[in-house]
Write a structure and sequence with these properties.
Layout: E1 2-6, H1 13-27, E2 31-36, E3 50-54, H2 68-83, E4 87-91, H3 93-109, E5 116-120, H4 123-126, H5 135-143, E6 147-150, H6 153-162, E7 169-171, H7 187-193, E8 199-204, H8 213-226, E9 229-234, H9 240-249, E10 256-260, H10 265-269, E11 274-277, H11 286-293, E12 298-301, E13 316-319, H12 324-335, H13 340-352, H14 356-373
Parallel strand pairs: 1-2, 1-4, 2-3, 4-5, 5-6, 6-7, 8-9, 8-11, 9-10, 11-12, 12-13
The chain binds ligand GMT.
Length: 374
């Protein structure tokens, strides 16, 4: 197939899933055209089946808000028509699904039919999409898609609960490249970070409020009171400065490091003993899946789709949102030397169920259905 993928090109989960999907599809012989405003961060290699088309928004003094959606629509029309795409797959409803709807109408007026598949990733539904500023457009553009997928059953449930959706939503979970995400030999790194054999806790996120990074620090404080431990925080975002200050106020700053945005996150995960995901909202939890693939068990909340990934008592432990005391107790249980090897092995085994090879055929099936539907 000749497939167009529209996504955010950033480190965020939806952009990572879209990029990894495009790479996997290209390896399976499809031609994949990425359409977005800059080179996706994980689109970092050459493949004869991969193409990248940049959306350029011309500046004009009248525009207080550059009309990205219009430039994106025009680019979609151009690429569908000239590259003869079979299907357009947009990741994250806002504004990609409505731009795709507009592109589809323009193409129809030119005698070209293009099926649109929309993948809902999370905050496009649970946070931003519900806002009255966007809800009518989100509802309409989902209903106008020829195929709709969500990354967890919980996100599908929430979409039906809050939006008047008439379409079937197919659940296609996040997936992982197990050749890239596996435990690597990084003992020199571990020795540098935890020279006294301390347990190593890891958190990666975009440091937004939904991630509750403050709870990460408070869990770490509780764990460190009982056992020697270090904490690595990967990523960056709005709450980072506040968290650096809080770490100093809590007097744990010497035992943790903020590593910023990292491309090779699997190298850091390879030295971890426990991954912390105390999110308030998480449609799937790709970051936890990446950790599990590197044999790192997860202490998480029960938010959104996390329980569809993290199996309580097997791959990690689950607590209510905000219950820091319970997460401290759970972390200590998982980190106990009697329990840790079992949790590590189970985390990897669970991650293997989400291997890219198992999940990508589901998207191919969805494309075929959408193409037949138009
Ligand atoms: O986690 C984020 O805030 C980024 C966000 C995104 O849209 O890029 O991630 C969402 O999509 C990921 C890929 O499907 C999911 O694994 C994340 O759980 C989801 N984040 C939230 O629901 C908060």
């Amino acid at each position: 197939m000749n497939i167009g993928i529209v996504c955010y090109p950033t480190f965020g989960g939806s952009g990572v899933v879209a990029t990894e999907l495009g790479k996997a599809l290209a390896q399976r012989g499809h031609r994949v055209h990425f359409i977005t405003y800059s080179q996706p961060v994980r689109l970092d290699f050459f493949n004869e089946n991969l193409f990248y088309h940049e959306v350029y928004v011309p500046a004009y003094p009248l525009f207080q808000f550059p009309p990205y959606e219009l430039a994106l629509t025009s680019k979609m029309v151009d690429i569908v028509q000239n590259e003869k795409l079979d299907v357009l797959h947009v990741h994250y409803a806002i504004p990609h699904a409505s731009a795709a709807y507009m592109a589809k109408q323009i193409l129809r007026s030119r005698g070209i039919q293009i099926p649109v598949v929309t993948t809902l990733h999370g905050t496009d539904i649970t946070l931003v999409g519900k806002d009255a500023s966007f809800e009518p457009v989100v509802t309409f553009s989902i209903n106008q898609s020829d195929g709709v997928t969500s990354v967890s059953a919980d996100l599908r449930r929430e979409t039906y609960e809050y939006f008047a959706i008439e379409k079937d939503i197919m659940v296609i979970p996040n997936f992982i490249d197990l050749h890239r995400f596996k435990k690597q030999e990084k003992s020199h790194f571990r020795a540098a970070i935890a020279p006294e054999g301390e347990k190593l806790l890891i958190h990666t996120s975009n440091f937004r409020t939904v991630k509750r990074v403050e709870d990460v620090l408070r869990i770490f404080v509780g764990v460190r009171e009982k056992i020697p431990a270090k904490l690595l925080l990967v990523g960056d975002g709005p709450d980072r400065n506040r968290m650096e200050k809080l770490a100093r106020d809590l007097d744990v700053h010497r035992d943790l490091r903020f590593l910023g945005k990292l491309e090779a996150v699997e190298e850091v995960l390879s030295v971890g003993d426990l991954f912390l995901m105390p999110s308030e909202n998480e449609s799937f939890g790709l970051a936890a899946l990446e950790a599990m693939a590197c044999e790192v068990p997860v202490v998480s909340t029960n938010a959104g789709g996390i329980p569809e990934l993290n199996v309580h008592g097997v791959t990690g432990m689950i607590s209510d949102i905000g219950d820091v005391a319970d997460m401290v107790k759970n972390a200590l249980y998982v980190l106990d030397d009697e329990n840790l090897p079992r949790f590590k092995a189970a985390a990897r085994a669970r991650a293997e169920e989400f291997a890219v090879e198992n999940i990508v055929p589901l998207y191919e099936e969805c494309y075929r259905n959408a193409i037949e539907a138009v």
